[in-house]
Amino acid sequence: MSTLTFAQxxxxxxxxxxxxxxxxxxxxxxxxxxxxxxxxxxxxxLNVVKKLNRARDGMPGNxxxxxxxxxxxxxxxxxxxxxxxxxxxxxxxxxxQQIGDRSFVExxxxxxxxxxxxxxxxxxxxxxxxLAQTVGADRGGILLQRLDELAFVHDIDLGAAVVSKFNxxxxxxGFPHRLxxx
Length: 182
Known about the structure:
Blueprint: H1 6-15, H2 31-56, H3 66-91, H4 93-99, H5 104-116, H6 122-135, H7 139-153, H8 158-173
């Protein structure tokens, strides 16, 4: 399980926007531009889920195996998280302040507790409240929670997926930015 923190992700993600990376300052795109990019990645993620649902239900139409689709899902979830981070960094410092020192492991632990107990018991309510505090009860935090739930039910380590996709993209494009794999 990746111990990547959201602060580490934010630092690397913002650094890669600089001259030795995308060469596109964060504020070089409007909030709408970042929203469109985020929406596109989320759409790609959901398209893979649609294909996984087809495979689960034995429906025709997929050209990739379920195992290949799970790999695709991990990549698309990672892309969505990377764009979500940049979208929230655009003009919302509150998100980073709420979750900066938290790790993807903590997010996963809260997600597991939430999904294991959906009853209105005290434990379930406590897990939901703790998760909301961890990821922030704002628009970015709620989306992050849902992305981790999607990763969880498909046995994907979201933090590891983010590290892998970030590093793969940097390597492919010759950027020096890397996230630690720990």
